[in-house]
């Protein structure tokens, strides 16, 4: 089952009282090393520090939650979002993360009062323990990217953005498992060109497009803790293969430079994954046409700002 624009509109009616309508910043030519103005959708100011709160709330508000609550495996942002939404709605949350999760994201999950379980070196290790917990307790799962409710929730970013900046021609969206970009592409539905941006060392969507379906990829990137999915989602692939314009790849150096520019020039504390879409412009991996109105989604900011100082 794919996702429709009506699913996204319904999700927004369901969640809008629980999420922030995040701001858009118009940067002038010359900012961030660019030769043009761009529209930055600042989703790092969302509750829990990333767009993931949208999908978490849409799941919890559209499903029956048992006494055992919700169990989620996460590299960080999904876990923080589920923990925040569960606390807001008075539900129990057990969040399973690998030891390699960033300290900032672990601290964020703890601050929301979830039961935090640190398991193994890899996301797959945490996911395995999480699955056992669900089987033993009856807790429900919220998939971080490959579920209709998740994708519809993430797509509400595009609904807002289109209202805020109605003359957009193109939007650049970072890709991990594909839940965000598939929601954005579903809402814009060809009216706005959607370009995915992946790290060279973590390109599950490009690999799926090349192979004709999702495949496992190696993950090695500075943005791996948020964009490090080993395999893009089946639903996300089915949507993106027909609805996005293309995927462009950016190196870690470009991501770190974009992250630094956001901080030094605008005091925007984006995590590496949150700066990845901007890196496509600043590194010229994506070259807009003259007059093209471009938007960049800054999707997450769960990072320790002290690590951003020059």
From TrEMBL:
Co-factor(s): pyridoxal 5'-phosphate
Ranges for domain Tryptophan synthase beta chain-like PALP: 17-300
Presence of the UniProt keyword Lyase in the record: yes
GO BP term, example: L-threonine catabolic process
Keywords: Lyase, Pyridoxal phosphate
GO function terms (MF aspect): L-serine ammonia-lyase activity; pyridoxal phosphate binding; threonine deaminase activity
InterPro entries per record: Ser/Thr_Dehydratase, Ser/Thr_deHydtase_PyrdxlP-BS, TrpB-like_PALP, TrpB-like_PALP_sf
One Pfam entry name: PALP
SUPFAM superfamilies: Tryptophan synthase beta subunit-like PLP-dependent enzymes (SSF53686)
Homology family: Belongs to the serine/threonine dehydratase family.
NCBIfam families: PRK08246.1
PANTHER family linked: L-THREONINE DEHYDRATASE CATABOLIC TDCB, THREONINE DEHYDRATASE, MITOCHONDRIAL-RELATED
Protein name as annotated: Pyridoxal-phosphate dependent enzyme
């Amino acid at each position: 089952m794919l996702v429709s624009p009506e699913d996204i509109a319904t999700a927004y009616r369901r969640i809008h009282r629980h999420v922030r309508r995040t701001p858009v910043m118009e940067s002038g030519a010359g900012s961030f090393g660019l030769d043009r103005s761009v529209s930055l959708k600042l989703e790092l100011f969302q509750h829990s520090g990333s767009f993931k709160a949208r999908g978490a709330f849409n799941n919890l508000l559209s499903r029956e939650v048992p006494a055992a609550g919700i169990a989620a495996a996460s590299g960080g942002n999904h876990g923080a979002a589920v923990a925040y939404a569960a606390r807001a709605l008075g539900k129990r949350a057990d969040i399973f993360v690998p030891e390699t999760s960033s300290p900032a994201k672990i601290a964020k999950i703890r601050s929301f009062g979830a039961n935090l379980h640190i398991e193994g070196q890899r996301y797959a290790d945490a996911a395995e323990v999480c699955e056992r917990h669900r089987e033993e307790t009856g807790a429900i799962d919220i998939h971080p990217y490959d579920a209709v409710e998740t994708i519809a929730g993430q797509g509400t970013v595009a609904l807002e953005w289109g209202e805020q900046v109605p003359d957009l021609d193109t939007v650049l969206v970072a890709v991990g498992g594909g839940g965000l970009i598939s929601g954005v592409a579903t809402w814009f539905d060809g009216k706005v060109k959607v370009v995915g941006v992946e790290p060279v060392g973590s390109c599950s969507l490009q690999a799926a497009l090349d192979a004709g379906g999702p495949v496992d990829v190696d993950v090695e990137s500075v943005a791996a803790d948020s964009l490090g999915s080993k395999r893009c989602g089946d639903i996300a692939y089915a949507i993106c293969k027909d609805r996005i314009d293309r995927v462009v790849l950016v190196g870690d150096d470009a991501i770190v430079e974009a992250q630094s520019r956001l901080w030094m020039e605008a005091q925007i504390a984006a995590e590496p994954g949150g700066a990845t879409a901007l890196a496509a412009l600043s590194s010229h991996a994506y070259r807009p046409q003259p007059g093209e109105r471009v938007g960049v989604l800054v999707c997450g900011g769960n990072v320790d700002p002290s690590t951003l100082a020059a």
